[in-house]
Amino acid sequence: MRIRCKPWAKPELEACPFYITDPKAQKGNWNALFPKKQPLRLELGCGKGGFISQEAPANPDYNYIAIDIKNEMLVLAKRKLEEAYAQKDMPLDNVRICIDNIMYLTNCFSEADRIDRIYINFCNPWPKSKHKKRRLTHPRQLVQYRMLLDGEIWFKTDDDDLFEESLEYFKEAGFRIKQMTRNLHQEPQMRYFETEHEQMFDEMGKTIKFLIAEPDPSVSMDSLQDLLQYSERTH
Question: What are the backbone angles phi and psi of residue 216, rounded to the nearest 5°?
């Protein structure tokens, strides 16, 4: 889907107190941006903010970073966050938003930035073989996340091929699957805050796939060094 240019988006973001203009400058120091030192959670590809604007105010004991690649999308997330916190009469102090290319995540985060949980909600499935390395669940991406992760990755998609291939990706990158379902809406105990895409797919009758993955303690980072070096070379 082509996103129309919004000339006002960048100035509005730059005037926002919880927008980070230079995420690379925060590498190794993200926790210092929050008034409280709390476990840090990360949403990769936050889009219009439908998820983060529910998740973050509902969990004030966690700090959140929401990343997207487009000003035009992130500015909508910014507005949704402001509205959500205003409705709850809460200070908006546990969220930071920024623009970044997630393919290069380790340019902005180091192993000092320990992440409690990563959310990947309805990322681009990149179905063509030549594009699959751009997937946010591709092994060369997952091994970058694993360097930072103390907890879990929560992954949702409507795309069958992406989900099935991601099961192999996680294994290759040294993760194990804790929970999974190929039809999230038949598993009410596993449901959590819905994104705009999820609501749309519901209306279309599509099934939502979901998994929770964690680093496999039997697989060391040392054993993944070749994959990590490949990731760095190809980036």
Answer: -80, 115
